[in-house]
């Protein structure tokens, strides 16, 4: 590289470093298409909280910085690498900053930053800000998300973290995930990072994670209504549904008031429209709204073949059924409005599978190799060994398939499949085959 290019790169590195030091609120970085430097000015652009680099200089800057990093700071045959020290820390930071901003998918360079953090040459808070800057341009950069997770693990090792600091970290991570998901559709890395941070917060004693469950459950519903093909978010929605089952009774009343009892009304409406004709109880929607959780579960499931002494939590059971039927109703509405989206049909399979699993668990059975077999209780494990995995008798199977919940679900699915088939949605036929041959409902469909 000639002296002019050398001077140019040094000037760019210095300008970028000055901008990052003076503005701690930088929120975006990008490479601006400019063919040549006609005005003889610095290619580093800084406007408000945004940093840019003109494209004509990117090749020269990247090759110079990358070559110096590899030559001096990474080991080669018969040559030792320089370790981060107080002498070279500033220079190394500048080289890493510009190189990773241009090409962040270099895990070796992120590892070098980890080494500098452990040696206290870089601060964890400033590193979170830097990785956020990287993600503003490359929202699907898994190395940047992995680096953030490593930083957060290091931060959460401090047992003296205050609740307000944890809240701030949680809000920042959720915000970063929002930005990454907005910038790139089906951003698996962003949604996976969101799941990771919530699982991390579950372990924090001085953080109200149940409020976050409710907040994220509500957020995912609004997001999916606008991004019906984002299969990564559907996976996150399923994670939120599992979490909402963990909400305590006190928090559940707050959640129920927040949605104005919509889950219960959605379930009651579905029951009223899909009651099997041959059952003795034909309650109106107004009557069903007066039912307690215990009474509603008894109406829907009534019979159990379990032989263990575990008590059934009918409140939790009713809560799960409410949430899943609300989800089924929401899915039906979206499929009517946004036709032919495969991701929504896959999500519907998840909902139906969860409802069927609830029934199987209630009746003490599961499905193995296409057959219904008796299952041992996972809590008390009191079932006799000889009875485990024994095939159920025809009488038990008839009791399962004759319960109100099973018949309501099957009637709901049959009507919806016929409706979508008439509308020309080929995924309806696939869904019916899934119910018949994967869920094993060929004899009752």
TrEMBL record:
Decide whether keyword Ribonucleoprotein is in the record. Answer: no
On whether Transferase is a keyword of this UniProt record, the answer is yes
Report the InterPro entries cross-referenced here: Prenyl_trans_a
GO molecular function terms noted in the UniProt entry: protein prenyltransferase activity
Instruction: Give the superkingdom in one word.
Output: Eukaryota
Gene3D superfamilies registered for this protein in UniProt: Protein prenylyltransferase
- GO terms under cellular component: cytoplasm
The residues the entry assigns to the signal sequence are: none
Question: What keywords are assigned to this protein?
Answer: Prenyltransferase, Repeat, Transferase
User: Which family does this protein fall into?
Assistant: Belongs to the protein prenyltransferase subunit alpha family.
Protein name (database record): Uncharacterized protein
């Amino acid at each position: 590289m000639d002296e002019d290019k050398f001077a140019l790169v040094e000037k760019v590195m210095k300008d970028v470093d000055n901008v990052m030091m003076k503005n701690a609120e930088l929120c975006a970085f990008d490479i601006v298409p400019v063919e040549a430097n006609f005005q003889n000015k610095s290619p580093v652009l800084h406007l408000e909280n945004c940093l840019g680099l003109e494209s004509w200089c990117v090749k020269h800057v990247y090759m110079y910085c990358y070559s110096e990093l590899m030559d001096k700071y990474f080991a080669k045959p018969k040559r030792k690498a320089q370790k981060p020290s107080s002498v070279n820390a500033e220079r190394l930071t500048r080289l890493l900053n510009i190189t990773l901003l241009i090409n962040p998918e270099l895990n070796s360079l992120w590892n070098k930053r980890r080494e500098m953090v452990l040696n206290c040459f870089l601060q964890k808070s400033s590193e979170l800000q830097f990785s956020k800057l990287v993600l503003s341009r490359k929202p699907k950069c898994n190395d940047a998300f992995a680096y953030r997770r490593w930083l957060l693990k290091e931060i959460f090792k401090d047992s003296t973290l205050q609740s307000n600091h944890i809240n701030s970290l949680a809000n920042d991570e959720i915000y970063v995930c929002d930005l990454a998901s907005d910038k790139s559709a089906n951003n698996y890395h962003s949604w996976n990072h969101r799941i990771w941070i919530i699982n991390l917060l579950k372990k924090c004693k001085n953080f109200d994670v149940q409020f976050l469950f409710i907040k994220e459950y509500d957020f995912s519903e609004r997001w999916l209504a606008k991004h019906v093909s984002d299969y990564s978010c559907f996976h996150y929605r399923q994670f939120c549904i599992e979490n909402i089952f963990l909400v305590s009774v006190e928090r559940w009343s707050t959640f129920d008031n927040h949605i104005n009892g919509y889950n219960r009304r959605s379930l009651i409406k579905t029951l009223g429209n899909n009651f099997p004709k041959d059952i003795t109880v034909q309650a109106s929607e107004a009557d069903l709204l007066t039912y307690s959780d215990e009474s509603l579960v008894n109406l829907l499931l009534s019979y159990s073949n379990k032989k263990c002494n575990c008590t059934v939590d009918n409140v939790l059971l009713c809560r799960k059924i409410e949430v899943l039927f609300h989800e089924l109703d929401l899915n039906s509405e979206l499929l009517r409005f946004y036709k032919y989206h495969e991701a929504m049909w896959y999500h519907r399979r998840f909902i139906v599978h969860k409802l069927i699993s609830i029934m199987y668990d209630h009746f003490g059975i599961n499905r193995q190799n296409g057959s219904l077999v008796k299952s041992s209780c996972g809590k008390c494990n009191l079932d006799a060994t000889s009875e485990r995995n024994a095939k159920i008798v025809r009488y038990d199977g008839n009791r399962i398939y004759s319960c109100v919940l099973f018949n309501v679900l099957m009637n709901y699915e049959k009507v919806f499949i016929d409706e979508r088939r008439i509308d020309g949605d080929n995924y309806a036929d696939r869904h019916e085959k899934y119910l018949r041959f994967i869920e094993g409902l060929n004899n009752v469909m």
